[in-house]
Design brief:
Length: 149
């Protein structure tokens, strides 16, 4: 039986979180989605702090889906933390930036900080769902899980 791929979504917009959830429901892979509202909660989740201490309920993510513009700790700050200061066993966790920004400076900054992929959120609901289904299929079917997690 294939391993379930756990995605951690850091997204402050409840509509976008809903679109991702619905898209993954239609994706063929074995996917488990965990959602947090900003980069600070994502850091707590990764570290297993507070409400996220139970690793059975909150397993380490295989892939992080990350919005850029969030309160408290934004996506760039989280990505810098993950690649440089997070526990060593999770520093190489794949990160997919999902942003409404198509600014080349944002794209360049994301890749410079260590993002594995960057896509602009489509405005159309159907296109958004299709993109999420494809993303779920790609990462759940092709991902080689980190044995350290």
């Amino acid at each position: 039986m294939p391993k379930t791929t756990t995605f951690l979504l850091a997204e402050d917009d409840s509509n976008d979180a809903f679109f991702v959830e619905q898209g993954f429901k239609k994706s063929p892979g074995a996917i488990e989605l965990r959602t947090v509202q900003d980069g600070a909660q994502a850091m707590e989740y990764i570290q297993g702090k507070g409400n996220f201490a139970d690793r059975q309920k909150f397993p380490l993510p295989d892939v992080v889906l990350l919005d850029i513009k969030m309160p408290r700790v934004n996506g760039f700050e989280f990505l810098h933390w993950l690649r440089n200061d997070a526990p060593s066993n999770v520093r190489l966790t794949p990160v997919v930036i999902m942003s409404s920004s198509s600014e080349s400076s944002d794209v360049t900054r994301a890749y410079t900080l260590g993002a594995n992929s960057y896509f602009v959120k489509p405005a159309d609901f159907q296109a958004y769902q299709y993109r999420i289904q494809e993303l779920g299929s790609y990462w759940s079917d092709t991902l080689r899980h980190n044995p350290a997690t």
